[in-house]
Amino acid sequence: MIVPALKNIQLRIDYDADYLSWLFAHFRALGLSLSHRIVRRAGRPIGWYVYIQRDVARLVHLAAAARQAGDVFADFATHASAAGALALAGRMEPNLDEPLRRRMAFGLAQRHLVQAGIR
Prior knowledge:
By secondary structure, this protein is an alpha+beta fold. It is 29% helix and 25% strand. Helix 2 (69-82) crosses helix 3 (97-103). Mean pLDDT is 78; it is low at 105-119.
């Protein structure tokens, strides 16, 4: 169901249900609270993300076609803020460069986002 929405992404991880079940259980065993969401527009999936819920929400994975990356990132920012996050952190992906520059009030170094350590 998601794959057609992401057909233009050149490299993506092929997650399966068993691996994701293990991964989410592993995060829970570490005491980390995960949120995950499939973002839809007009009932169709346009991307998804997974993040660790904390004061600084740590984005673990975000997948979206380049045209929808801004919408998926905006959904992540809104969802994390509503869950109590004061800031966002994570690895910078090239397709998020422009959405971040439009949304954020600070400058970004060349395709790198400052990453806070996880306590």
